[in-house]
Amino acid sequence: MTAKIAPAELAQGAWYALEQCGHLLNDAVTLFDLGRYSTAVGLAMLAREEYGKARKLFELAAAGQDVDADDVVMADHIEKQTAARVSVVLRSLDPNSSLGKLLWQASTLNRTEAMHALGRVIDAAVRRAPEERHDARMRSLYVDWEPTLRKWSRPKMMIADEAKYQLDQAINDYAVYEGNIEHDMAGTLGAPVAALLNRWSERPRLPPSRRPR
């Protein structure tokens, strides 16, 4: 017989996962400031997975039903990255690129048409985000053979700009969620989940976010 997990236990697990997300991100910032860019990204992507787990568990707790223990297991990395998919950032370092021109058009001329095109670009970026973030974790932690380039991909090849881009996005998502919960737990998580958490006398404080130097 499969064990059941009650809504109060789900809410606590979600809180612990969100707490761990904050700790991992702060550790990632420490590593970034030491110049360990690839390892910082690896931790930040693992933090995103804990963030996704927290959101999934909060949703299950909000349903108000006991669930099978098997239903809370999230072993797949991309599944957790998908649950953590809240925002994406479009960046174009080249104003003459197709994205750079589209961003310029959306803010000036041909606004309506450009905004529709930009919406399609954003939708595609949202769909790609979980796999791209999983790929960033793999590239930041493991040496792998790149058959197309016929060379080894090494974590130490990750530059500071790319690492900071990944780290900033992860910190932003956590900081907004943590801040919303701090200021309006019931509005963010729903009144039933907030009530469960408020009855939890040993609930730890969520780590405040830090930023790379």
Question: In a nutshell, what does this entry contain?
Answer:
The protein is 65% helix and 5% strand. With 213 residues, it is mainly alpha-helical.
Description of the structure:
By secondary structure, this protein is mainly alpha-helical. It contains eight helices and four strands. A hairpin with a 4-residue loop joins β3 and β4 (151-153). α2 (37-62) crosses α5, α3 (77-83) runs antiparallel to α5 and α4 (98-107) packs across α5 (111-141). It starts with a strand and ends in a 15-residue tail after the last helix. The mean pLDDT is 86.
Give the tags.
213 residues; mainly alpha; two-stranded antiparallel ribbon; 8 helices; globular
Low-confidence stretches: none
User: What is the overall pLDDT average?
Assistant: 86
Q: Estimate the helix proportion, in percent.
A: 55-70%
Computed Rg = 19 Å
User: Helical element count?
Assistant: 8
Gross morphology: globular
Major beta sheet summary? 2 strands, antiparallel
Tell how many strands the DSSP assignment holds. Answer: 4
Total count of domains: 1
**H/E element sequence:** EHHEHHHEEHHH
How much strand content do the residues show? under 5%
Kindly report the spatial arrangement of strands forming the biggest sheet. Answer: 1-2
Backbone structural class: mainly alpha
Distance between the termini: 51 Å
Strand and helix map with partners:
Elements: E1 4-5, H1 7-33, H2 37-62, E2 67-68, H3 77-83, H4 98-107, H5 111-141, E3 144-146, E4 151-153, H6 160-183, H7 185-189, H8 191-198
Antiparallel strand pairs: 1-2, 3-4
